[in-house]
Request: fold
Amino acid sequence: MQKYSIKKVLNIQGYKIKSIEEQKTEKALYIQIVPYNRKKYICSFCGQQHKKGYSYKTETTARDLDIGENKVYLKIIKRYYKCPVDNRIHIEKIEWLKPWSRVTKRFAYRTYQLTSITTNKEAGWYLGKDDEAIYRIDKDILSELAKQRLEPPPAGKNISVDEVSYRKYHRYLTNVVDADERKVIWNDKGRKAKILDRYYDAIGEESCKKIETVALDGARTYISSTTKHAVNAKIVYDKFHIIQKLNNTVDAVRLLELNKARKENNTELIKLTNCKQRFILLKNKNKMTKNQKQYLEQLCEINKPIYEAMLLKESFLQIYSYTKILAASSHFVKWIRETEKSKLEAFKHLAKSFRSKFKYIMNWFKRKVSSAISEGINNKIKRLKRMAYGYKDIEYFKLKIHQHCGLLKPENPY
Reply:
């Protein structure tokens, strides 16, 4: 009765339990299973059934899911037959067993589920496996799922393209995000035009023509690749990255004035422009507290360049208050002229960059899409990288991004 009950729990077709050995010290069950005589042999090489050519059999041990508090190890009898296709001896194929992993497929899938919510080290501790074994099992399942769901990659109608750093010294991954589904659908190492070309080539010319909008961070490489392939798409230099560049330019002015104040030993200006206060300059004026507004007014009174930088920033942001593209473009042209007349080199450089991408900035008023979705996903990727203390295997890292932010999530059926 005990063997019958455990066999029902294991649900292994074509095999019977020969013996059960309980190890109380390590809380483990060693279950020896053997194939029924009538169970047909399936060749692992050709996938066909062979009735003749039996050679020998061996026993191997594979880890299965726990039963209660007990770890389960299956001692499996495997048969070897001579395959008539290549005239060589091959082991039999067992559907529920993960090839070359010494674990069952359901144990491997549980490993994949755990690694999607925690680190490999913690998953290994919970399952009683070392980090290397968890890594191999997880990568194997993710690779299988990637072949099913990501080859060829999905073709989104509205996509967002952005890069994320995966290592020091400017090592980047390019991520393509489906803006409608809010999921990563493709990624690859690098951020040059030829990298994004690979995505467009993979989805094909017809799918490229169906792309309606592509939200970008203004990178020339991405623009050139998109212009070449997605001929019908509107390229949108999104609002999120523009505000980010404005804030970075204001901060550049702050740093310049802070260095001048240190040389002149101007303690009042040093106190108002130090790094602890920098976030106030980057904050939206409407969201400032009363004290923050007073601080900003005080800073602008004693430092003309920062005051001018804040005026230029606020002036540019007014563009997004317009509902009509003509009014917005008119304001944009005026802002370019004002900036070119200013003495702030950082803003002059920014104006030159914005002027060259005028069409893409104005496209935001036609299609209000943003790559802020990509930035949100980038934050998840950075968290994933921190949890693992970095990834040596870049291919595995790409798969983990799809597992946490894309189509390889465990919520999708296996």
